[in-house]
């Protein structure tokens, strides 16, 4: 068990190859304890996901950092996140990007995330309740898109809302999930790269059909 954020950063992130100083600083700035229920606060800096209620979880710190690092986010970027959850991942992305737009299908999580982000003093995250499958076309195109729930395949509307040169990162699959990185290289061209094995909650809504 790790008891401080610096232990988490040294042993879980740096030790596993997360070297990007902006990502490490973002992880340092966001207090994970503000995003989890009281009964699991003693495990705030544990090396794994934690339950937040209703069968939902807050992601493992390493995965949050790895995904942020992989997207190569700059301070001028507008990001779309599918699956707000408790708001922790959005809060980390908000330290790196200009604006984060986040969609959550579960109504009580929308309210929870808004309260958590307010506690954390994060102001550049916009959340709406809805099915993330169709994205947020009114705010598109995006420099980067991140999914924090796993669809069986990448929803086509999300790929279309990516800027040329933009990157989309998603866990894909049912029982065996793999993190997939897609880069839009042209109006109709995309390049795909398979990264690491992961385990995320399934994406709900249209993706289940």
Biggest β-sheet: count, sense, barrel? 7 strands, mixed
- Average pLDDT works out at 95
User: What structural class is derived from the secondary structure elements?
Assistant: alpha/beta
The main sheet orders its strands as: 5-4-3-6-7-8-9
Number of strands: 9
At the first level of CATH, what is the class? Alpha Beta
Helix-strand sequence: HHEEHEHEHEEHEEE
Low-confidence stretches: none
Q: Fraction of residues in helices?
A: 25-40%
Number of domains: 1
> End-to-end span in angstroms?
40 Å
Give me the number of helical elements: 6
Radius of gyration: 16 Å
CATH homologous superfamily grouping: Vaccinia Virus protein VP39
Keywords:
seven-stranded mixed sheet; alpha/beta; 9 strands; two-stranded antiparallel sheet; Rossmann fold; Protein-L-isoaspartate O-methyltransferase; 6 helices; 209 residues
């Amino acid at each position: 068990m790790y008891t401080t954020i610096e232990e988490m950063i040294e042993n879980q992130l740096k030790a596993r190859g997360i070297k990007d100083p902006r990502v490490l600083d973002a992880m340092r700035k966001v207090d994970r304890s503000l995003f989890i229920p009281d009964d699991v606060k003693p495990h705030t800096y544990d090396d794994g996901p934690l339950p937040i209620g209703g069968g939902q979880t807050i992601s493992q710190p390493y995965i949050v950092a790895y995904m942020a690092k992989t997207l190569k986010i700059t301070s001028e970027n507008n990001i779309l996140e599918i699956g707000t959850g408790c708001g922790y991942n959005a809060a980390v992305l908000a330290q790196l990007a200009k604006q984060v737009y986040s969609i959550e299908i579960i109504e009580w999580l929308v309210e929870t995330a808004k309260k958590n982000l307010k506690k954390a003093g994060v102001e550049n995250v916009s959340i709406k309740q809805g099915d993330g499958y169709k994205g947020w076309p009114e705010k598109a195109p995006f420099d980067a898109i991140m999914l924090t729930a796993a669809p069986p395949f990448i929803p086509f509307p999300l790929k279309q809302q990516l800027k040329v040169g933009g990157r989309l990162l998603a866990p894909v699959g049912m029982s065996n999930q793999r993190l997939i990185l897609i880069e839009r290289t042209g109006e109709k061209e995309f390049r795909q790269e398979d990264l690491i094995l992961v385990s995320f909650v399934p994406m709900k809504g249209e993706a289940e059909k």
